[in-house]
Structures are given as structure tokens and as C-alpha cells.
Amino acid sequence: MNAIEVRKITKRFGTFTAVNGISFDVGRGEVFGLLGPNGAGKSTLIRMLTTLVIPTDGTALVDGADVTRDPNTVRRAIGVIPQAMTSDLELTPTENLLIFAKLYSVPRERRKRLIAELLEAVELTAWADKPVKMLSGGMRRRVEIARGLVHSPRIFFLDEPTTGLDPVSRTAVWEMLRRIKSERDLTILLTTHYMDEADKLCDRIAIVDHGELKALDSPMRLKANVPGQNTLDASFTNAPVDWRERLARLPGVDGVTEDGNIFRLKSNSGPATTMALMSTAAEVGVTVDSLSVQSTSLDDVFVHYTGRQLRDALQDPSPADRMMYRPR
Amino acid sequence: MERTLAIIERDLRRFRRSTALIAMSLIMPIVQLVVLGYAFGGNVRGLTLGVVDQDRGLQAVHLREMTGAVAANAKTFSPVEYHDMGQAVTALRDGRLNGVLAIPPGFSRRVLEKNDPRVALIEDNTDGFVSASMAATMAGLVSASSMPPPSSQRVPATTSLDVVEVYPYVPYIQYLLPGSIVMSIFMMVMIGGGIIFIDDKSRGLHEGYLVTPITRLELILGFNISGAIKAVLAGLVLMLIGSPIAGVPHPYEPLRLLRLFVVICVTSVALVSMMFLLMVRMTDPLLPRALFGVLNTILYFPSGAVYPQAAFPKWMRAIAIVDPFTYAVHALKSVVLKDVGFAAISGDLLFLSVFAAAAMTGATLLFKRTL
Hints:
Chain A is of the alpha/beta class and 328 residues long.
């Protein structure tokens, strides 16, 4: 049995369709990422899977329980880290975890040890009894991660876990999640709009845009499906007039563009194209001033499947994402 | 039940550390009690009365001497003699005088002839309290100066009224205390309950609750019991501090404290239920702040906390009938000022209980377990 099974799930707010007939499965022990820009429908989707929002149509089974018909079974099986920082600032990390241990009916005799273990796992033992308001953004996020695990859930939902954190804190959160995942039998579903986060953490990625599933596969396969797996940027001295045409005929090259003095070659075989470029340049007497070879990124994947850059894909927030939002 | 207790524990732990919130919720009703109590409760003093004696007879001198006696004792006003009526009236219009006592020519002769003797009080009536106070003092003074000499008859021929007061003198600050206790409960319900509830909701804190297996009833009970506990604490603190400030006799008499405790508890539950009903579907954090001032005005003033409801127009009395403050203030006044038992306030307690049950039922029906 899969940890999560989603079939044609849809959520409409009036005439606005936030999620439109999405289907996917998440296997046990998998780290699954929902990648898309703000307002793509990721948060609405995760809210439906965590019983916060009732789907308009379709079904979703989480740990074998239907989110609509049996929400309490789902709630016992999952840990959730919402997008907003929701720990009580006036309380200490220990107190925050203690309250949630009680909400999840964790047996009294296990609470103290469990909380100490979790705070150690997120490296907050030294801050266990300081008010959360004294902690940095990254540390607060780690409190939330520990809080979400206080009842030993089998499936862990994280809604944009590193949004708003500086690069160092983001890396620390990633490391923490990897370690926790390696130590526990945990399935993780996370949403993100950071390409590098999805690339580094997820076993499989679903690209979501305008409430629809655009692609779903491992990061490696998603990149492999994009034409031109490598990009070569090079600048030359003494290039002949037909140099661009010559570059286009090199082995593996899918296309060449010119931006000032820089030639950009899309290649499906980076090493072969690089070797051929160097030998051709030597034959013709062209000096290679600079050369860089880059692999295809998830940015390229996103552009390939949605036709636009992720950073450009700002959308209106859905009513579920912004409860205060009123269309003008 | 453990989950309900967890919600209460979380709320009370936060509350205990929010010293600014506690201070603000308690200071305002105490300041209001002291400032309004002394501002409205004292006798009017230090007015200036112009006296124009156009008679100069024996009875006129007697009347002037009596105004001097008022200046020396009650200090309601101090007399200033004017020889010209026009100057006195000009001084009155300029605000240098609060009133002018005019003793017309022939006043003393008319007194002796018992021929309808009259004096006039010309008042600046732009301030009703001042003019009423001066008129009352002058009426008493004129009445005293007209009293017949002691009679040789054993039984007076005229009817007289003897007023018997059932309770000791009640200064205005004591009259105001019950309203201030209700106000402190309301402040805590509004700031510590309503505003924090909406702020937590908009910050996403409620999402944290909603993804746990907590039931709708457990969640509602948790929110409301913690709100009621905070409100009861606020009411008790104001009762314990406010009673000696207001000079309530025997403020810590155990049986009366018990009755007050019961009224404060029932009032707190009623106001928390009302607030929960108002906030249950609200999402805008600014709205409860805006609502605060409106509710404060339409609940506090019609309740009879600062002025007797008998003086209100019909529409305001209609508000007072459905206003839970009315019953809370009445019950607290009955216990604080009259020291009555539960039987005398059972109607108030019944209304507040029914009000709480109705509001809580409405709020529970409107409460959504999802976003």
C-alpha cells in the first residue's frame, strides 16, 4: 500500500479552481516534492491531504484512510509543518512540544524522553527552555519540525519548510530533514518553490502550475527528458564569419545562440561537444578565451514543462492560501 | 478532556508571560473607577455668586449673611457683592460669575408684611450640573431664611416629610464599582480572548490545532474555558482592589465574596460566549479592534453602570433589556451596595446563564473544523 494515493483531486473556491484533477501516489519511505510557484495550488493540495480543506471532487487516501470520510485516522498518522511559523513565541521549545504531545495523547511516561530526543535531533537542547521568541528563524523552523514529529507520525507534510530562511539556515534544515529521515521510517511530502531544495531533498518531484500536474518523476529523469542536457558558454578570439554555423555542426549540439561575444550551445552530450569544440578551434586557429559547461537544472525542466521561468511565474494567491485575500 | 486541558494550559502559560496584556486589561478599569468615581461623585464647590442687594433692609442683610455661611461651610459658592445689576449680569455673561442673586427693593418690607417676598437667581445654565447645584443650595437657603420662628404649639400644623435611608450613604465611586468589575471582565474577554483568538487564527496557529485529532467540542471548550478563567481572574482582581478603593464597608466579608465570585463567574462565561459567537467566523485581525470601541459603548453605558436606566429614552432601555452588562451590573450592585443573598439576584443569574447557553450554541454551530 502506498503512503499517499491521490485520485483526480479538485478544489474550487467559487469560480476559482485552485487544484484541478491532480492524481499521484507517494510510496512508503519516499521523499516527494510538490514544486511550483506561489499560488500554483501546492498549499491547497497539502491542506486537502492534511484534512484542513475539504476537496470539491476526487479522493485522497493518506496511510490508507480517506481524508474526507476518516479524517481523524489521517490526523493520527500525519505530522504537519504549516507554511507559517506557528509555534508560540512566549513558550519554550519544550513547552511547545509538550502541548502538542498532549494534543496527540502521547502517553505521559513517554513525553519527557521523547521531547528530549527530538530537541536533540534538531540540535536545540541548549535552547530547550528559552522562549521561542529568542530563537532565530532557522531555529524556530527546527522547533516546528520537532513539534510535527512529537507523536511519531508515519507521514510528514512540510509546506515550504525553508521559505524566508537565509541560505545557511536552509542548508541546516535540509541536513536535519535528511538525518531525521534516515533515522525514522518516515514518508515525507513537501512543497517548495526552490529548485535546489527539490533537487537535493526529493526522490520524486511533481511540477504543479495553475492547479494542474505538469510533470512527475525523479529529478534525474525530469532533467533527462529536457532536450539539451548540457549548456556550453564560450567566448573566442579570431572567430571566422561562419563560426556559428560550424559550432552548430559539432557532435551533440541541438542549437546555438549568440549573446554579444558569448556563444551558447545546447548539447545532449557535453563531453563530446567540448572535445570537438576544442579540436575545431585549434584547426581553424580560433583562440578559446573562456568555456563553461553546465548540466540541465530543474529551472530548465520547469521552463520546459510550463513555458516560463519559475521566478517569473507569480500568480494570484488562491483563497485558501490567503484567507484575507479579496480580488479587486 | 486531556486535549481541552492542553489548549487551556497553552493559553494560560502564554497569558502568564504577557505582563503587558495583564496590566492593560486591569489598569484601565481601575483608572476609570477612580477618575470617574471622583470626577462625578463629588459635591460642586468653589462657584462664584454675585449678590446685588437693592433692598438693604434687615431681611436682605440676613439673606446675605446666610450666603456667607454657605461660603464658610459647604463652600458651594463664595459671594461677591455688586452694587449695579448691569455689571453683575455682564460679569455672569463673561464667565466671571456662575450666578447672580438679585434682592429687589422692598424685599424686607414684603417679608414682614408676608406679602409674597421674592428674590431672583440669574444663572449661567450652560452647565446643567453647576446650575442645578447652585439652584438647590439657594432654594435651601431661601427656605431656611423664611422659616417661621419656633412655635409654642406641641404638634406642628403643617405636613412634613422625613426621609429614611435603608442603606448607608453610597458615594458615586461605590455606585461605579460594579460597572468597573464588569468592564474589567469585558476588557479581558476582548483583549485576552477575542483579539488574541483572531490574531492566532490569522497567524496560522489554529492550523496547528486543526491537524491534530482534537474534536470540535474539545477545541471550543478549550478556547472558552481558558477565556473564562482569564476573565474571572480579571474580575476578581478588580473586586479585591476596587472594593477598598471605593470604600465598600467590610470589603472582604467571606459570604459576600462568595456571592460576588459566583456573579463574576457567570458573567465571565456569558461574555466569553458572546465574544466567541462574534469572533467564530471573523478572519480580519483589524475587525475586533474596531469592534472593541463600539461594543464598549453599546454594552457599558446602557447597562446602568454609570447612570440610572430610569433616565434613559425608550430605545436605550430596549438595548438595556438584551444587554448582558445590565444583569451583571444589577447583580453586582445588589451584592456590593445592598449585601443581598442569591434569591435577590437569581433573575440576573438566570438571564446571564440563558444568554451564555444561547451564544455558545450559536457559536458551536458556526464553528468550522476546517479552514
